[in-house]
Amino acid sequence: MNEHKIRQSEDASDKTIGELVAADYRTAKVFEKYGIDFCCGGKIPLSVACKEKGIDLAAIRREIVAAGSEPLERSQNYAAWGLPFLSDYIVNTHHAYLNENLSQIAVYANKIAEVHGSKHPEVIEIAGIFDKIATAMTAHLREEEEVFFPAIKRIDAARKVGAEPDAGDLKTLKECLAKLDQEHEEIGDAVHRIRHLSHDYAIPDDVCNTFMLTYRKLNMSTSRITFSF
CA separation (Å) from 93 to 6, 55, 90, 159? Predict the structure, then answer.
């Protein structure tokens, strides 16, 4: 979304968070700053989200405009990418990171829960939540890679040559979207619960290096999960 279009959105009270981010990914950092869900919970209007969070609507609109005026790198203009290329990017960038790190982060989270749980009981709940996220995400990523994205590519290829997409692929796409949307909601809620419990991954003064590393990795991994959604 260019600056002109973002300014137009100031008068569109029904513009949702998800629509704003989908149109211009640069606005995501504004919503992340204020703890506003732009993923699964991004289906509500900006005005409603601000009211729920007690955020000044005019102020956040100014920040959205500022974010939208930043230089847009061609390599990160996701809205201009074809779906097959975007699918490959998600797999090679975000899926690769998550597949390599989810299990290790879960180990770290459980370790700090054992060591620091008495003084910081929130990490016990965080470890339990992340275990569930890691298990769910492993299956989620596999389904996207083996079923969802291949169907998208076949449908896209058929349409490019003027052919009708295979009915089976269309059915697969519809079923996957319904299932993945539900998973996005559940995993998204879990991610936000961790962020809340950790106070946005604020590191206490009395913890070890493993604790600090775990929080940093949790922050990075949950951001990757949100983007891949």
Answer: 28, 33, 5, 26
Question: How far, in whole angstroms, is CA 158 from its chain's centroid?
Answer: 29
* Alpha-carbon dihedral sign for residues 151, 156, 159, 163: negative
What does the angle CA 224 – CA 169 – CA 153 come to, to the nearest 5 degrees? 50
Closest C-alpha among 17, 40, 19 to residue 30:
17
pLDDT single digits (tens) 140-166:
899 999 999 999 999 999 999 999 999
Query: Mind listing the domains of the chain with CATH numbers?
Result: 3-76 (1.10.3910), 81-228 (no CATH)
Q: Is 189 helix (H, G, I), strand (E, B) or coil?
A: helix
- Hey, what's the torsion of the CAs at 72, 75, 81, 83, to 10 degrees? -130
Tell me the CA distances in angstroms from 121 to 39, 102, 211, 220, one per residue in order. Answer: 28, 22, 13, 22
Contact by Cβ (8 Å): 57, 26? no
The pLDDT of residue 78 is: 66
Residues 202, 164 contacting (CB under 8 angstroms): no
